[in-house]
Design brief:
By secondary structure, the protein is of the alpha/beta class. The two termini are 36 Å apart. It has a 5-stranded parallel beta sheet, with helices on both faces. It has 9 helices and 12 strands. It folds into 2 domains: 119 residues, Rossmann fold; 99 residues, Winged helix-like DNA-binding domain superfamily/Winged helix DNA-binding domain (Arc Repressor Mutant, subunit A, Orthogonal Bundle), CATH 1.10.10. The relative contact order is 0.10. The longest helix has 16 residues.
Length: 227
């Protein structure tokens, strides 16, 4: 993915570029709103990440001009300001998503991929299996009428299992897919995350918990029941 990052804070730039590199993205950086706008107008990108507080032109001005020129590239706003008015203004001007600082780079990457997929129309919004429903755009999971928002890690883990029903994922494989680590950190982080998902969606109700489709394979890992 080819991404334009318009951001003036060097620490944020280094943090985002490093994460994008690890995800296989190619990143072009502009550190002021005026240059960012010009680059967005003359070059083609798969996605744009735009900070609000920028020198020369702020992010709202840049966004307004990009959309006014008929450029509909998926765009995520970044800002230290999390007021509702700022979020609403971003969406009214045509932003596809909005992330307050500080943020997790993994979540930004997932949201970028989701924005691009929506624009391309090549991803299913919902994943369903064994009565469990996962909304890939809102990160809401629903089980027996109970809907709960998942954290980024919980979402990626559950999506990983649901996309391959019946397949057993070892804890090491889950660590690779969800935490991007190729070694055993010596913790029970995978088990804790699974427990949180189960607790959120069953409210510790015994009947709901007994039929919940995430199955523990003793000594191996986890899978979604293939029923």
């Amino acid at each position: 993915m080819n991404v334009l990052l318009i951001e003036d804070e060097e620490k944020i730039i280094d943090f985002v570029v490093e994460g994008f590199d690890a995800a296989g993205f190619v990143t072009h950086v502009e550190s002021d709103g005026f240059r960012g706008l010009n680059t967005a107008l003359i070059k083609s990108f798969d996605a744009i990440v735009l900070d609000v507080n920028m020198p020369l032109m702020d992010g709202f001005q840049v966004l307004a001009e990009i959309r006014k020129k008929g450029i509909h590239t998926p765009l995520i706003m970044l800002t230290a300001r999390a007021e509702l008015a700022d979020r609403l203004r971003s969406f009214e001007l045509g932003a596809d998503d909005y992330m307050p600082k500080p943020f997790f780079i993994e979540e930004l990457i997932i949201r970028l991929k989701a924005c691009v997929a929506r624009k391309m129309g090549n991803v299913e919004k919902l994943v369903q299996h064994s009565g469990l429903l996962l909304d890939r755009f809102t990160r809401l999971a629903t089980w027996k009428g109970r809907s709960m928002a998942l954290t980024q890690r919980e979402f990626v883990l559950l999506e990983c299992l649901m996309l391959s029903p019946g397949q057993i994922f070892s804890r090491q494989k889950i660590l690779q897919n969800v935490w991007k680590v190729d070694f055993d950190p010596g913790t029970n982080v995978v088990d804790v995350c699974i427990q949180r998902i189960r607790k959120k969606l069953t409210e510790a109700d015994s009947e709901s918990l007994n039929t919940f489709p995430i199955e523990t394979i003793r000594g191996v890992g986890y899978r979604i029941k293939n029923t």
